[in-house]
Amino acid sequence: MDAGCVRSSKGNLSPDIAVSGRNDHLAALSGVIDRANPAFGVAPRRQLNGTISCSGGFLAACALPVTAQESCVKNGSERFALVTGGGGFIGSHLCDRLIADGVRVVCVDSFRTGRRSNLAHLEGNPAFRLVEHDVIDELPAELKRLRFTRIYHLACPASPPHYQEDPEHTMMTNVVGTRNMLRLAESVGARLLLTSTSEVYGDPEVHPQNEDYRGWVNCTGPRACYDEGKRAAETLAFDFRRAGRADVRIARLFNTYGPRMHEDDGRVVSNVVCQALAGDDITIYGDGSQTRSFCYVEDIVDGLLQLMESEKADGVPVNLGNPDEMTVKALVDLVVEMTGTASRVVLRPLPQDDPRRRKPDIGRARDLLGWEPTIDVRDGLARTIAWFSSAEAPGWGTAAATGTDGALIQAAE
Ligand SMILES: NC(=O)c1ccc[n+]([C@@H]2O[C@H](COP(=O)([O-])OP(=O)(O)OC[C@H]3O[C@@H](n4cnc5c(N)ncnc54)[C@H](O)[C@@H]3O)[C@@H](O)[C@H]2O)c1
Question: Which residues form the NAD(P)-binding domain (predicted)?
């Protein structure tokens, strides 16, 4: 943090900000929670809207009146990002990359589906702060004052069992949460990137799916809270853009996998890997001929960073995913081979509204960003299996051994 900014902030803090005398805790802001310190991994959800403590002047230095903020920008500290959903699978990798790239990051997460352990290694990093907050709720005033230049809006449960657990909350996260973030982008002049999804194409009638395809979505089905929620989120983002209220980028992510996936969230790769490692039955729903295209998380994070900074991608959604299509059966065979498991493969009926085919047309990402995946599925699976086999993967053995909701094993995300 730029020391000059810290100093210049002190006299300008708002009345609800108390500044402590300690150098490592320059300010305590009320109304927000920062769990960046010892509370990592322990804070229960009910403690939302407590207090925020800012070590190293990180937030305090940014909660400045405009003139002081301008001096921060002049001093080169303008790379300041908000990552919503930063405690989740993709978001935590994104936080890592941003920080490695020299960006200061505030992560906002309710930990509805994310995990504190995903961010534990960032504890104490002066470039990182964690704020526990639900994006549906009005943003704490202190957050609204921070001069973010980039907002990566990822907050939303991505796996079917998670987003179907509380469909109303999922829909509101996508609609109200996205509006809150767009309003923040509008008020601070930040560019906002929304992580939308291939689910906006529903059970597609065209293959592969390019961004002009308008989708085949069931608005009354159990997946609609997510699919239609994301469609509405895109609508809001484009409305803000059309009205000149916010600069937005839209990423439509296809199946992503890698370390820090939830072991029990019904996504194909994590389910199959965990079942194989535990020696449990590996469940395939349908006959396994349905296809998916799996993109390793590192490639997706590269794509998100490039899309955010792209001027050419203004005003258009961009697919990010791996066009190497494979059947679920082929994935299972590969995992069985790579883990050497003795697990049996069992077949079960397909769940409702599950897409039969999924493959991104990434022509636009190639043209506009020069982006395409670089990590092939064998390499990505090796890294993922290694992670699930390591002590870093929290407690998957229990979830896999007790069995997951197999009806979701081929779930699209
Ligand atoms: N993983 C995929 O294959 C995939 C595919 C398409 C789109 N996406 C999108 O990418 C984003 C990240 O997905 P992921 O796989 O990391 O999912 P995830 O569930 O691991 O992470 C989502 C994060 O958002 C947080 N969150 C959820 N609702 C929130 C709320 N109301 N307020 C604050 N935080 C909230 C969760 O606690 C979690 O940390 C999501 O927007 C998802 O829709 C993911």
Answer: 82-383
